[in-house]
Amino acid sequence: MTNDNAASRNRIDDELARRTDAARAEAGVTDYDPNAVPAATDAALPFDPAFDTDEQEIESVTARREAQGATTPLSADNPFPPTRYAD
């Protein structure tokens, strides 16, 4: 077998593999055609916790609990976290 013949077979094998993947994706046997998916090139979006509603809610609940005295650091005198049950 010559180099030209081997290169030709590799191209044919690569094309057959690409077409097989596409046919499997079209038939629903696989989730997607990996050759049709573009590379992920988008940069990550900046995150600003000041505009995140979940972050704001957590901070407000934490501030309220601290104001109520419900959050005290654990120590030898206070070894257990506060309970929500009435005494």
Mean pLDDT: 79
What percent of the residues sit in helical stretches (DSSP H or I)?
A: 40-55%
Number of DSSP helices? 2
Radius of gyration: 30 Å
Largest sheet descriptor: none
Structural class: mainly alpha
Strand content: under 5%
> Topology as H/E string?
HH
> What spatial form do the alpha-carbon principal axes imply?
rod-shaped
Could you name the ranges where pLDDT drops below 50 across 5 or more consecutive residues?
none
Intertermini distance:
88 Å
Say how many strands there are: 0
Oligomer: single chain
Structure explained in plain terms:
The chain has 87 residues and is mainly alpha-helical. The protein has a domain at 3-33 and 45-67. Helix content is 46%, strand content 0%. The chain is rod-shaped and about 85 Å long.
Give the structure's gist in a few sentences.
This protein is an all-alpha fold and 87 residues long.
Q: What keyword list fits this structure?
A:
single chain; 87 residues; mainly alpha; 2 helices
